Amino acid sequence: MRASLTLVSFVIAAGASLASAQVGAGSNALTATERAAGWRLLFDGKTFKGWKGLGYDSVPTAHWKIANGAIEKIASGKVAKMPDGQPANGGDLMTVDTFGDFELVFQWKVTPGANSGLKYNVSEEFSLKNASNHAALGFEYQVLDDSLSEDNKLATHRAGALYDLFPPNDKKRLKPVGQWNSSRLVFRGNHGEHWLNGAKVVEFDLGVAEVSSPETVGYALEQAAAMAQTLKAG
What we know:
mainly beta, Jelly Rolls, 9-stranded mixed beta sheet, 15 strands, disordered N terminus
């Protein structure tokens, strides 16, 4: 792990979508070159080792399971929801360990109408104080079915965006629903980058008027309908 500070955690958040999600299927293994470069695998493909629920000591099994080598989000169904559409009783999944500057690589696919995301600049303490449903609060790499999701009206809410702040640029190439997308998230110092299928689609620096960072840097995979494989950080 090429981190100079120990600051933050990964979180996978349970959202309001009716669809299911997976994290870590298939090729969740490091090459010899990746290991030598300091990459760290975040999911072993078999267990929840290294993970817990945000605000809990264990994994919220009503929201998450492991199936076919992946962490799978159990469909939320018609559960009670908050005014913003989030479930009233959430179950975000986060890493036990924390990290500083990072580069995160993950693969994901969505079901029709899915709305999800990978969050960072997440503090568990801050989130628990300011969100009543165990939801991670922070910056978000948006994961979405751009074609059918109800949250596709704004460019800053579409796949690859820094949610509500910066839309993906015209280099974005999104795979069809049901196919794997490859994403990369870079955060070093005050500089952040979102990559999607080999293209840098968002780039920003903290300290400018549009971006502020109230808490320590973290990551979160958020809501209900994303599938992500090969979570690893370097």
